[in-house]
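Input record, target 12 of the design panel.
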C-alpha cells in the first residue's frame, strides 16, 4: 500500500503585519504593480495632451490679444511692427489656426514658450523661472506645514475621541471658512500696522538687492512669516478634520481590536496600524495640493504684494499676454499631473489592495 502523505501546512500569515486585505504571503508585497502604473501613466499623458490643446485654443477664443493691448498703450507703433509682433507671438493671421497649433507644439518640444510683451519681450521661461521659486518657497512650505500638523493632530484627536482635544476641530474648521484675503488683511492690520512685528508686504525690503547671504535670507523669512501663517491657519482645519474622521472609521476595524487584544503598545497601534491606514486618502489630497502650489494663492499674493506665480498669472490675464498665460498654465498643469502621478505610485506601494487588484 502506498503511504498517505500528511497534508502540508501553509505558513500562517499575520493579517496585522500584511494588512487587512492580505490574501497572500508577505513576499507579494514587494511586487511592483506595473500594470497599474502603466495605466496611470497613459492616462496622464492623454490628460497632458488635452490640457496643452486647451491651453492653446482657450486664449485665442478671448476677444482681442496681447498686441491689441500693447498698441492701445503705444500708439506710435507702425502696422508693420504690429504684424511682426503677432508673428513673433504665434498670432500670425496669415496662418490658419491649425498651422499655429502645429507651430506651438514645435516650439513647445524645443522648450521655447515664446516671449512676454508684458515684460519687454523677455522669454517666458525666464519670467516664470524668476517668479516660481518665490511661490514654491512660500506656498509649498506652508502646505507641507499645514499637512503635517493637521494630519498628526487629526490622528491624535481621533485616537482620543471624546476628550478635550475635540475642541480643536470646530476652531480650526471655523478659521478655514474665513477667506484668504480677509484673514490676510486681518493679519496685516493686527501684526503689521498695530504691533509692527512683520512687514506689510513684499518678499523683501524696498531697495534690497537679492543675493545669497544670511542677511537677505533672514529678511525673506521675516517678510514671509505672516503669509505662511495665514495659509497654514486657513488650510489647517481641512487636513485635521479629514484625518480625524478617517481615524474614527479605522478605529472600528477588526484588526485594530485584534492588535489591542494582543497587548500591543498604544503608540504602535496608533501609528503602525490606525494612522498608517487612515492617512492613505490624505495622500491624494496632499499631492493635489502640492501640484497647485505652483499656481500659488493669487489672492494671498495680491494682499501681500508677493512676487509669485499667482500674481504673474493675474497680470498676464489682464494684459492678454497669451505667451505668458500659456507658459504659466503649462507649468501649473505639469506640476499637478506629476504630483498626482507620484501620489499614485506612493499609493500603489502603501496600499496592498492596489497590488492585489492587479494580481
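The sequence produced for target 12 reads:
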Amino acid at each position: 500500500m502506498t503511504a498517505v502523505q500528511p497534508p502540508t501546512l501553509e505558513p500562517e500569515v499575520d493579517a496585522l503585519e500584511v494588512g487587512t486585505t492580505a490574501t497572500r504571503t508577505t513576499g507579494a508585497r514587494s511586487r511592483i504593480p506595473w500594470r497599474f502604473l502603466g495605466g496611470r501613466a497613459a492616462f496622464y499623458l492623454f490628460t497632458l495632451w488635452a490640457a496643452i490643446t486647451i491651453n492653446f485654443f482657450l486664449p485665442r477664443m478671448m476677444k482681442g490679444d496681447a498686441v491689441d493691448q500693447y498698441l492701445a498703450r503705444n500708439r506710435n507703433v507702425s502696422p508693420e511692427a504690429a504684424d511682426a509682433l503677432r508673428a513673433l507671438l504665434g498670432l500670425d493671421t496669415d496662418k490658419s489656426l491649425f498651422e499655429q497649433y502645429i507651430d506651438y507644439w514645435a516650439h513647445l518640444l524645443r522648450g521655447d514658450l515664446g516671449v512676454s510683451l508684458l515684460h519687454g519681450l523677455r522669454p517666458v521661461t525666464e519670467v516664470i523661472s524668476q517668479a516660481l521659486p518665490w511661490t514654491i518657497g512660500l506656498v509649498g512650505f506652508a502646505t507641507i506645514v499645514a499637512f503635517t500638523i493637521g494630519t498628526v493632530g487629526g490622528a491624535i484627536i481621533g485616537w482620543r475621541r471624546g476628550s478635550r482635544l475635540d475642541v480643536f476641530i470646530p476652531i480650526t474648521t471655523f478659521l478655514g471658512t474665513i477667506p484668504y484675503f480677509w484673514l490676510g488683511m486681518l493679519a496685516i492690520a493686527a501684526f503689521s500696522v498695530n504691533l509692527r512685528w512683520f512687514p506689510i508686504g513684499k518678499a523683501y525690503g524696498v531697495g534690497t538687492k537679492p543675493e545669497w547671504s544670511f542677511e537677505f535670507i533672514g529678511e525673506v523669512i521675516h517678510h514671509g512669516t505672516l503669509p505662511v501663517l495665514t495659509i497654514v491657519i486657513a488650510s489647517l482645519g481641512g487636513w485635521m478634520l479629514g484625518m480625524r474622521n478617517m481615524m474614527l472609521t479605522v478605529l472600528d476595524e477588526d484588526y485594530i481590536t485584534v492588535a489591542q487584544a494582543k497587548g500591543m503598545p498604544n503608540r504602535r497601534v496608533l501609528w503602525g496600524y490606525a494612522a498608517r491606514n487612515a492617512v492613505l486618502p490624505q495622500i491624494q489630497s496632499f499631492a493635489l495640493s502640492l501640484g497647485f502650489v505652483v499656481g500659488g494663492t493669487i489672492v494671498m499674493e495680491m494682499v501681500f504684494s508677493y512676487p509669485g506665480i499667482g500674481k504673474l498669472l493675474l497680470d498676464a490675464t489682464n494684459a492678454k499676454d497669451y505667451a505668458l498665460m500659456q507658459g504659466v498654465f503649462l507649468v501649473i498643469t505639469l506640476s499637478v499631473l506629476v504630483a498626482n502621478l507620484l501620489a499614485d505610485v506612493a499609493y500603489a506601494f502603501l496600499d496592498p489592495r492596489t497590488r492585489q487588484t492587479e494580481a
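Residues 214-250 form the longest helix (37 residues).
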